[in-house]
What we know:
Largest sheet: 3 strands, antiparallel
Strand content: 15-25%
Amino acid sequence: MLRVGRGTLRRLGGETRGSEIAEAAAVLPIVFMMVLGVFWFGQAFRIYGTIAHAARQGARAGATPGCTTCAAGSTTPQKAFAAVQNALVSAKLDPNLAQWPTVRPSLVSCSSGAPVACDVGQTKVCVQENVQLSKIGSGAAGVCGISVSFQYPYQFWLPFTTLNAQKIQLQAVARMRMEMP
């Protein structure tokens, strides 16, 4: 009776039928997690590209002297804010989720050299106008422009990982030289 048990065990140990199912059961969850990761990181990259584009549109609108689509009497920060809002809406992102950046850019004024604060009239986008973008040399004026910055939240959904339900803030910053009329 003992011989039959050993022979059966040897035969079963050398059997390869059904091993594909066991291998698939071990590998498929890992492949599925990788596909989910690629999808969610791709979404984050898409949103980052969109908010970077929105910040550039805001800086461009604020840097140009005239505006054909702006309301009469719009200030530079209002034009920049409206352009950011329009870019976010056209990309199907909720503009109400945009927030001031947690770390505001520390830029100095072209005229006085003092730090420039964000325009307090814009509640979601930090617009700093008449800021020094570059310094050519000691005593030189450099290039003056506008800075637009904000952040947008994004939440990952990767079950069984430390990134599951993790919310991150994607940063968008754009600076553009002021155009003269």
